[in-house]
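Our working data are protein records whose layout never changes between entries. Getting from the letters to the tokens is the skill we practise here. To make this concrete, we reproduce a full record directly below:
***
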Amino acid sequence: MSAADPDAALFAPIENPRPGFYAIVGLLMAGTAFGVYCWSRQLRMGLGETGLAMPVSWGFYVTNFVFFIGISHAGTLISAILRISQAEWRRPITRLAEFITVAVLAVGGLQIIVDMGRPDRLLNVIWYGRYQSPLLWDATSITAYLTASSIYLYVPMIPDIAMLRDRGTSPKFFYEVLAMGWRGTARQKRILSRAISILAVMVIPIAVSVHTVVAFVFSMTLQPGWHSTVFGPYFVVGAIFSGIAALLLAMIAFRWAYGLHAYLKEVHFNYLGILLLIMSLLWFYFTFVEYLTTYYGGEPDELAVFFQKWTGPYAVYFWAMGVCNFLIPVLILSFRRSIPAVGIASVFVLIGMWLERFVIIVPTLSRPRLPELATGHYLPSWLEWGELFGSFCMFALIYVLFTRLFPIVSIWEIREGREEGLHDVESRLKSYLPDYAESGATGDRS
């Protein structure tokens, strides 16, 4: 960081990428290509190449879908809530969070196409869709969420894109088009501030509704283990939980890779670590309520699924979920919230939340109530493992390529914080705290 340009480190990944950048992109492209190969083989050979079969017709693919859609809550909810509450520490992390939403929504939506033996039939949702089906609610809400999140990502980027245009960064025409004539006038700044505020208010209910609707795909059925009124808030809490963990890992990765230590500080990891701890406790509460009411009700079909998870063939996944989502994060974050500690807790949370989706989906399907269908046990094939690996590589690749084109930390927000944020915080503090003259006068009257 030089005296002439205090934010040179934020432009460096775009204008002077490190040699290791291309090596990482190459590795991620290879991983993505392997996932595409697995899917192409599945298209040629059919779904019989996977572990999917009756009665377990959903497996890794739908688990991945729910998992990725859940992570998308990291961007809109965290960024929007922090913007509305005027939390000044939000400035270096908003764009990191907002792009997670767009990237994982794209990857998560692809999981449904991968899950279909005939992807061309996806168009039937458009041509013959019926809104009596929660599946169509899902498609509609995710499309609306992706659209709103993309706009919410792009609008605050306009001033930074204009900076790249003015610096002559290549491709110059690309930045000239996206900057939309931004000159930083007082009128443009007022319009931008108003637009961001409106979008922040809009995306919060959209984000909450999306994972609620994802939960409806399960809870609107009469399947044991799924037909639950708590699934809506349970899924939303789990989504925020996994989203915070994903954001923390992204922050750690880019802090190290791009040398952003001056921007992503210990305080940011401490605050998000506290939030992760709170969400872990909330997740445990909802999980406890869900399984307590199932056990206490004693309905035979429900108990069959219940014991599949607690003591049956899926017990390892169930108890690993509890350890990863509750025991380890609470033990770590209650005593330490350093960057390494928060990173370790986040890794376990992401593993645990993926297992949670798996535990919700597969045990229920493996216990059909129709006598014509035998009880099944799901074992994923190497194709499904390959597609899972390729999906994570695709998400990372999209994210890394984004940082090659746009600043991963909002430069104009950082500069605004230096120039105006300190004064605004001081003014707000003065409005919160009692004035000495007023408090003294009150004391005299009493």
